[in-house]
Structures are given as C-alpha cells and as structure tokens.
Write a structure and sequence with these properties.
Elements lengths: L19 H6 L9 H23 L4 H4 L15
C-alpha cells in the first residue's frame, strides 16, 4: 500500500491557532464596539419578543395558547 505525502501544511483542529486564519480575515472595523448600536440591537430584540408574545396571546388558535388546547383564557366550554 502506498501512502501519499502531504505537500501542503495541515491546519490545526484544536488549540490556540485553530481560529487564527478565520480571525485574520475579519476587517478591523468589525471589532469596534458601539454603545448606540448595542442598545439599538437590545431594543430591537425586546420589541420583537414583545410583539411575538402579544401575537400569541391575542390569537384565537388554542394550540398556540397552551399545551393541551385548554387554558384559563379558553373560550371552549368543554374544557375542564
């Protein structure tokens, strides 16, 4: 059985140098932190979460309201 010699270096699969080639490609401006952008992203996520919860609570679909199809806010008369 013949073995093929590797002529190109193999990238490490663990350790400190594992992500270095990936991190070297990222532009420097991506590492700059902006408080205003961070607060905008938090506010956006809270708004999306709030709208999602509001949408689920305001729907008439019983499967979205609870596990079993019956809940205290159910309009179904046969729920016990």
């Amino acid at each position: 059985m013949r073995f093929i010699e590797r002529t190109t270096p193999v990238a490490p699969t663990s350790g400190r140098g594992f992500l270095k080639p990936v991190l070297d490609v990222i532009p420097e401006h991506c590492y700059e932190q902006s408080t205003a952008r961070g607060l905008f992203l938090v506010a956006r996520d809270v708004l999306i979460f709030g709208l999602t919860v509001w949408g689920l609570l305001s729907t008439d679909n019983q499967l979205l309201l609870c596990r079993c199809g019956c809940s205290p806010v159910s309009r179904w008369p046969d729920c016990s």
